[in-house]
Design a protein that fits this description.
Order of helices and strands: HEEH
Oligomer: single chain
Strand content: 25-35%
Largest sheet: 2 strands, antiparallel
Strand order of the largest sheet: 1-2
Radius of gyration: 21 Å
Distance between the termini: 17 Å
Length: 73
């Protein structure tokens, strides 16, 4: 289980290092007055610092190393 989690952390960390965020469009109501409905598309951005991906990748490597050393003992 620890080896699988280590691989997942490592892959997620590498992906976070390559892509430091993403953006998406959300439709929000601006005016809702009886039969009149006006909405606007607003672009939202989700971002994270690159060091977060590095920490996650490092944690994955540590889990892989410690997981394999426990099995050999």
């Amino acid at each position: 289980m620890q080896k699988t989690l280590g691989i997942l952390f490592l892959v997620a960390g590498i992906i976070m290092l390559i892509w430091t965020g993403f953006s998406y469009t959300q439709r929000e109501k601006v005016v809702d007055a009886g039969p009149v409905h006006i909405s606007a598309d607003k672009q939202k951005t989700v971002s994270w610092p690159p060091y977060a991906g590095g920490i996650l990748a490092l944690a994955g490597v540590v889990m892989l190393v410690t997981g394999s050393s426990k099995r050999s003992a």
